[in-house]
Structure formats: C-alpha cells, structure tokens
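Lecture 7 notes: from sequence to structure.

We start with a single chain of 246 residues. Read the sequence below before looking at the structure.
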Amino acid sequence: MIKKKTQAYQFRPSVFLAGMRDGVPIGLGYLAVAFALGIAAKKAGLTAGQGFIASVLCSASAGEFAGFTLIREGAPYIIMALTTLVINARYLLMSFSLSQRFSPDTPLIHRFFVGSYITDEIFGITIAQKGYVNPWYSYGAILVAVPLWGIGTAAGIVAGSLLPASVVAALGVMLYGMFLCIFIPPARKDRSILLLIVICFGASFAASVLPYIRKLSSGNRTLVLTVLISAAAALIAPRKEEEAHD
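Now the structure, written as tokens:
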C-alpha cells in the first residue's frame, strides 16, 4: 500500500502548538507596546471596543499610530489610506519574501491569511523555520500575539479614561520610546542610517514651519516626506545585492 505524502500546508498539531509557543513572548511584548498605542487611540476618541477591533485588523504600530493621529485630526479617508499604505509598505516586501518559503501547492487562502497578519516579529520567527513553511505555524503565533495586541490597545484606552490627564500625557510618550528602541541599534552600526534619521528629523521639523508646506495636514506631510526621503535614500545609497542577502 502506497502511503499518501503529507502536504506542507496540512494541519499538524505539533506545528500549530509550536507557533503558539513562539507567539507567547511576542504577544507579551505587544501587550506592553499596544498599551501606549491605546493612549493615542483614546486621544482620537475611540472606545475600547473600537481600539481592539482596529488593532486586530491592523497589527502595525507605526501604521496604527498614524491612523489614530489622522482620525484625531479629522483627515479624509483617502489620506488615511495612502498614509498607512506608504508606512506599511515594508510588509509587502516581507510578503514577497515569505511567499517563496511556502510549498508551491499551498492554496491561495493560506497565503492570504498569513500575509494579512505579517508583523516584523511574526515574519522573523516564520522565515526562520527550516524547509517549507507550514502556514499553521504562523496561525499558532497569530492566534496568541494578535489578540494580545488588541487587548493592550483596549487596556490603554480604558486607562486613558481613568487616569489623570497629566499621567495620560506622560504615557503618550511611551510609543515614541518604542520607535527610538527600533532605530537606535541599527543607527549605531551604520552611519548612513544615522544620517538618514537626522535628515528625517530635520525635514519633518522644516515641513512643520516652512510656508505653504506647514499648511498641509500632518498626514499629507508624512506621506510626502516618506516618499521623497525613501526615494532619495534608495538613489543615493542603494544596498548592494550581496549586502541584501546577508
């Protein structure tokens, strides 16, 4: 009797549980970071339920923070969509990379759901798997990490309703601290990254004070600066092919 070959995308309890196990530390980190995000959501007027749904459907700290800021300012939907698209564009590259690690016969539905919940951390643990990636590993990690991201956001909104205004204002700085933790380590290793960070800070400040440009909404300024600076960086200091595969 010929034994049927197990397909790489079929459900396997051991793979699913391994994903859940690896998703626990990620989820705990998300819980703390999303709490600060909830403060921003509270300032935008979102309820705890709305914040939870927003975080579950859009698991991206920078994209969500920009979205909440634009909601607070009453920006048009098209500006919200374009801004979050540009800010979250890196996930498109992650999706392309991860798609090459799936078995060729993996159904589109699995690719769609895994791609919908790619974050930096989930991508990292998934791409590190040996051989073809079983989507059920990603599902296990997503099942643990994403709800904790939503719970953290909801908790931040609730805390923002209960705590004094001065404490809420102080907690609002936490998210900026997270961004500093993200780009300071690579900036210490690569001076070109440090230079780009300085340019970004300078350009952002200039855009907020220069005539005409300062009249644009923060969403439009973010959109324009992101596209221009990233395009200029790619032209001036492109990564060599061998560096990209390190």
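The CA atoms of residues 26 and 115 lie 17 Å apart. Keep this in mind for problem set 3.
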